[in-house]
Amino acid sequence: MSDPFFHPVSGFDLPRFAGVPTFMRLPHVDPDNPRFGDVDVGIIGVPWDSGTTNRAGARHGPRQLRDMSTMIRAQNGATGVRPFEVLNCADLGDVPPNPIDIMDSMNRITAFYDRVLAAGITPLTAGGDHLSSLPILRSLGKDAPLGMIHFDSHTDLFDSYFGGSKYTHGTPFRRAVEEGLLDPERVIQIGIRGSAYDNEDLDFAAAVGIRIVRIEEFFARGLDDVMAEALDIVGTAPTYVSYDIDFVDPTFAPGTGTPEVGGPNGFQALQVARLLKDVNIRGADLVEVSPPFDASGGTAFLGVSIMFEILCAMAGK
Amino acid sequence: MSDPFFHPVSGFDLPRFAGVPTFMRLPHVDPDNPRFGDVDVGIIGVPWDSGTTNRAGARHGPRQLRDMSTMIRAQNGATGVRPFEVLNCADLGDVPPNPIDIMDSMNRITAFYDRVLAAGITPLTAGGDHLSSLPILRSLGKDAPLGMIHFDSHTDLFDSYFGGSKYTHGTPFRRAVEEGLLDPERVIQIGIRGSAYDNEDLDFAAAVGIRIVRIEEFFARGLDDVMAEALDIVGTAPTYVSYDIDFVDPTFAPGTGTPEVGGPNGFQALQVARLLKDVNIRGADLVEVSPPFDASGGTAFLGVSIMFEILCAMAGK
Amino acid sequence: MSDPFFHPVSGFDLPRFAGVPTFMRLPHVDPDNPRFGDVDVGIIGVPWDSGTTNRAGARHGPRQLRDMSTMIRAQNGATGVRPFEVLNCADLGDVPPNPIDIMDSMNRITAFYDRVLAAGITPLTAGGDHLSSLPILRSLGKDAPLGMIHFDSHTDLFDSYFGGSKYTHGTPFRRAVEEGLLDPERVIQIGIRGSAYDNEDLDFAAAVGIRIVRIEEFFARGLDDVMAEALDIVGTAPTYVSYDIDFVDPTFAPGTGTPEVGGPNGFQALQVARLLKDVNIRGADLVEVSPPFDASGGTAFLGVSIMFEILCAMAGK
Amino acid sequence: MSDPFFHPVSGFDLPRFAGVPTFMRLPHVDPDNPRFGDVDVGIIGVPWDSGTTNRAGARHGPRQLRDMSTMIRAQNGATGVRPFEVLNCADLGDVPPNPIDIMDSMNRITAFYDRVLAAGITPLTAGGDHLSSLPILRSLGKDAPLGMIHFDSHTDLFDSYFGGSKYTHGTPFRRAVEEGLLDPERVIQIGIRGSAYDNEDLDFAAAVGIRIVRIEEFFARGLDDVMAEALDIVGTAPTYVSYDIDFVDPTFAPGTGTPEVGGPNGFQALQVARLLKDVNIRGADLVEVSPPFDASGGTAFLGVSIMFEILCAMAGK
Amino acid sequence: MSDPFFHPVSGFDLPRFAGVPTFMRLPHVDPDNPRFGDVDVGIIGVPWDSGTTNRAGARHGPRQLRDMSTMIRAQNGATGVRPFEVLNCADLGDVPPNPIDIMDSMNRITAFYDRVLAAGITPLTAGGDHLSSLPILRSLGKDAPLGMIHFDSHTDLFDSYFGGSKYTHGTPFRRAVEEGLLDPERVIQIGIRGSAYDNEDLDFAAAVGIRIVRIEEFFARGLDDVMAEALDIVGTAPTYVSYDIDFVDPTFAPGTGTPEVGGPNGFQALQVARLLKDVNIRGADLVEVSPPFDASGGTAFLGVSIMFEILCAMAGK
Amino acid sequence: MSDPFFHPVSGFDLPRFAGVPTFMRLPHVDPDNPRFGDVDVGIIGVPWDSGTTNRAGARHGPRQLRDMSTMIRAQNGATGVRPFEVLNCADLGDVPPNPIDIMDSMNRITAFYDRVLAAGITPLTAGGDHLSSLPILRSLGKDAPLGMIHFDSHTDLFDSYFGGSKYTHGTPFRRAVEEGLLDPERVIQIGIRGSAYDNEDLDFAAAVGIRIVRIEEFFARGLDDVMAEALDIVGTAPTYVSYDIDFVDPTFAPGTGTPEVGGPNGFQALQVARLLKDVNIRGADLVEVSPPFDASGGTAFLGVSIMFEILCAMAGK
């Protein structure tokens, strides 16, 4: 059982529109807080979008995700899991990025996650654009390469953009494989779709053994079958879960920078996360929520609902 | 055949963007109008949201539903039913609530529906938050408990909020069962989902015999099967239909106060209403449309499309 | 004193967000209504924008103006006038336009206003684009040319568009002068500004004696001085007031098709209308409110506030 | 292989948010351009909505479709087709309509397409409202009646509106059949739904042999089966493809004038277009995108994604 | 000099879009926090709008005001005051209201402010609707009646609504005078305008000696002159400042429930607050910011800019 | 007289909502176009916001400014200047930035402007964030330091951000002075306001002789007086005009990343630009329009209206 210090504020005590909005109404425990060492799962914001090649805005993601997260209650309606009673959960605050300097920002992020790992905390990240995953993996994968279940409409396996820029939100997993942070044979990418520049990313995936499930296959086989394959691929070894909100159909998640028509609906978006409960999750992220493209917050509400499912998967093991 | 006095204005005579917006372009016949006694089905607005525990706004529902209802034409495309030629339909206006006083408002609503029933009119209500259903049922169910088919993502069966408040939009059907207005063994709730505080509502439902179909079951069995069960449960006795717009997926119906990710789409939202045609409908409501959360009116347009299906179900018997 | 039948519904009896939205919550009295002959001032919607050369949408103006007009109360705060107690006011409904046929629509509008005039009613119109003024003037000015105080950022005095089209929202007053409906020497246009194609309109104005007050002059002299001149120009003979919402700065009134930067603010927008109280107003319109460009309704709220000032000017004589 | 002159600008060379927005970042080649004769497929805007009987705004469609089309890349992710390398594609600009004169506008449109056809170009049109299809067919179908695959929620087969207006966006295909531009026995309409005034359109369809697939049938049989029938109906003779964006569910495509609840989702919207690859496409249009009802551009993004699928179908033969 | 514990986080250390959003990036110090006793000025949210007679939404005010407050920096540009270095400032969190029970909520608010006062903290409140001021004054004015400078477009001096409801956002200062919490001869209300039901409020004001400055007088005399009178009226005795955001023109502050056209602009909105620096401020509030009517947050940004000016006035004495 | 090749398309020939949107409907003449050498004034987009320290989005500025610029006609209404008949004007397209690399982007911008200058073209830039001005000045000011009239709410004279980042949109003019591109004694900054971190920028300005006119002084003296001083400071030597849209009040220009309450209105925003006609303008920019924060385009419409005034000032000499 968890420590009541880490229980979220109930909507019966303080209405859900009220209060300082921390993630899921959890206590705000930054790394200098004396309770930091007692946290099991830490929710961390990475308000950073300097890797974005097209429409920026994901830097505002953590703020809006916190705001909408106050709609989340204590218990998973579908599974009955009550994660906050199983794990000590906390809002660890945001990593302070340098919006002007990509390399400096990546170093800051890796350093923050090093502290999180040193404290034995499993990180659940709210991005930020997808380049965020690279500096996180530099911390989580530094000792041994991780497997990864990756939900996205893009592979993010390109080599470079704009004449040689190596660090963009289209390249993080190319880099992560090259740096030995991911074991490509234990990586599966689900939901890939949309128009493409060329096949450079697919060729790389094929060469190193990454499994790609395009959206047409996803719909044809059904999500249970695809997820069974995913669990088989990553096995029982430590695994990272990376969930790009643009995996979901852009009508359900318009607030993102690079939408692609024709993805899963909201129910399916939750269901795939729910099926992660037997994965050995070393860390997870939900990235690319971009509030300027969805002022109403519907995308962020879906995003935190997914984060809650991932948290329940962590708690339900 | 209906009286032409009660026919809606055609879009061929007056374009649909024009005119004073009554419900479905019907005549406005308030209780003091000499034609009040000739009405078969009366559409009534209940612009009231004082029972809302989270995000208010449903008080604006009737206005926006009237506005969008001018998009509705004379004939059901799928079934061929022309309800306005079968039944004398009218817009009965809005019940005047007291936004500052819950008890006063409930009394006003019950009194209004008592007049409607005395005139032999079947009420079709545009809410308002879900607490509206309670004072309506106090009129419709006063002689004998009704059955109910209830579409929603929440059970609204809680006992109280905020340290003892008994009358909120999360409690109406708990009260209605306690007051003998509903026969719980003839009640089915469809679409329940989302995170929960606890199981208090489910325990109550189980204790009194209310049937709950969670969304996972709904999708797994398919809507035809679930609706067949619903018709079996309510049987041929008088039945109330209560349709909370948050039954529908929030991407299809963002304009509501307490959305829950992962519900039915627009086609399914209509289809379940279409399948009510063999129900003995004593009254029906469509509640929780909250325009401040969907300025574009898409939610209200879906809402009136559902209301039209319910009206056709009433006419198609 | 007015007949209580014509009093608006009070917000103390029915909250302002409730009820079927007629103009200013007045009774809906269409020309076939037995009380039609008792009306002093009739508010009429002209939901028509077929004369629009650029961005359409004013066809939706009357609907949104009715909606926002429920914010208006009984008494002018600045002047103390209570117009609904002085004059029998009513919502006469909308003129049914033919959105596909300009000539047919203009004939329908003129015919409607002929009935209004025959009943001795002073019309206060909610447009519609500015071409609406022409068929109205064909009714009001048919016996003798009227004077006009015209608030606008455009003169609407052009000859034709797109290679010869004579009837657009840029030409109504050229036509009205040519047809003898307006006495150009008793016409003043206030607020003219923005970039121009050429000087054709100004040359016409100069040739026939129309007085134009550009916005630079308006701000330099102050509105009291300009309005004094306006009253002097129109004198005591019958006068039409035409108020294009794009007279107001587009930040205050974004919901319009052809905005021009740098106009009066909201206070000034009301103040010029307030100063019409000694004008012999034969009819008035408020045109070019285009809801698709201001979903929030702020433009319409300003528009009905101006209409209320004009109504008070009519009542305050 | 296509001429590199006709290749779109790559997002690697110029980020996708940058540059003058032509359709799919293609060269702008108007009819007076010396390269006009080298174009294989020309994308043409018809910024015109004078046939709209309800909510206008489709005149703004081409502008927003161009804007969102910069999100499209070089290769179809699902099929691997690279259309710009197969066909010389270009943005031919917009047909200049006369917003005040329907007959003049139709003549202008037909004249423009006559030039396009004379140059041997296959036109892919971005509307505009659905009346646009009529003057286009007057050019494409003048020598011999065409077959048509028509995606829509409405049949657009009515005779007239508002007391005799023959040219509206609800009548183009009635006129086209009457004028011998379409062979009704080779016409199929898919997705029909929503409330109706009467059965006049259905009776006409039955009389002349047009096949109508209502949305209920579409969902019941599945899209592969329906599309197989469609291909069978039109056969190998020249065929027009007309795609009204309101075919798609209004939650996925809110930016349109006459939405109807309960249509296909985004994935299905693309999939039906993808299945056109064996059709002998003489021309195609995507109409009724109305930006004032979807300021965010999601509808236009879906629209251009559909246009890209149609283009790939043209290239993939 | 203030304690560095109470300094806000600098935008140079953590970008302003990052971090858990407390008011002005101050530490969150709730009443149970050991540093509570060291606070000089406490910013408090009252997320409550149960007194709203028209359009609700102010319950969401504190959340959005916190969000936008991260745009505020350390120093007043106009006056050079650095309030956070002069006073120990903190975010004291939100008072937990009971959205279903007005009396319970008022008791909770008064109890919270009693704790604040007992700790010697000067409260700066972010509402909430204007009824919030009453329970606050029941704490602040319990020992001796306060003076008040009140910026608003309404007097909020009515007796009751809807047939006798005494506690609404239109009645707080009537109640406060009756309860002896305010000294009416030391009360001035500035900016009053808009249409009215009747003169009941003005008659009350005249009877008890409240000074009302209508907007026409405000603009005619200029704000310096009016504010000089205001300071003269309240003198040097303890004074409450109540700032309703609808004092400001609705184009500058659309996010409010009861806007009135024709108020001060943003510069004037700040300037009147800046001129409070010689007032003996016992407490202050900024109320009626209603985010559902301004999703973009412009109203809240103006609101927190006003709160910062009031804070600087408190610090600049 | 200008060459008709460079005349914009008239709204009488092609309605203003139609056509490929180039700046002010001018021909698109990129540097490789044979007519490049004939251009007098070139309008250039710099779609780049990598220097933004807070809310990004100005990368989308040129696109939306082009879109709204189609509202501009041929003649200045206030001054009668017809700039397109005086000067050969063209849309030179966008500089291709590298969104991932600040240094690379600055080099690309400077190289582009070197070509523009080599062709004898006066550049009028549509940003982009304010860091854009630095690489432009590196081209324009490379031979001799320029004077500058700078409209803004911020000085942009800071030394560095986030622990040493030297190139942000808060530092361009500090760098430009240090690099000898601007003559600080011929620089005036007008409109400065808002909260501040500290006085580092003001101290630098004082040390090097830059004149700062805060907004309070601007309003107190009036714009004519301030602009007279500005013209006196820059004299007759070559001068750069830099116009940050956040100079304008955020209610008039919400679409910007770092708004500050209390600035000039739309009329004043145009008027200050109109008064530049006797300045020796070597180049000018309008920066910081950020469409994600104003989807309606009102800010961009104001922005292009200002650009048109600057162009008329260039033409009116």
Summed up, what is this model?
The structure is a homohexamer of 317-residue chains. Chain A is α/β, with parallel strands linked by helices. Chain A is built from ten helices and eight strands.
Biggest beta sheet attributes of chain A: 8 strands, parallel
Strand line-up across the major sheet of chain A: 2-1-3-8-7-4-5-6
Q: What is the strand tally of chain A?
A: 8
Q: What is the C-alpha radius of gyration of chain A, as a whole number of Å?
A: 18 Å
Q: Which class of secondary structure composition applies to the elements of chain A? A: alpha/beta
Name the average pLDDT of chain A.
97
Oligomeric state as shown? homohexamer
Which range does the strand content of chain A fall in? 15-25%
Low-confidence stretches of chain A: none
Number of helices of chain A: 10
Q: Name the biggest interface.
A: A-B, 28 and 30 residues
Helical fraction of chain A: 25-40%
Distance N terminus to C terminus of chain A? Answer: 14 Å
Shape of chain A: globular
Would you list the SSEs of chain A in sequence order as H and E? EHHEHEHEHEHEHHEHEH
EC number (chains A, B, C, D, E, F): 3.5.3.11
GO molecular function (chains A, B, C, D, E, F): agmatinase activity; metal ion binding
Protein name (chains A, B, C, D, E, F): Agmatinase
Organism (chains A, B, C, D, E, F): Marivita cryptomonadis
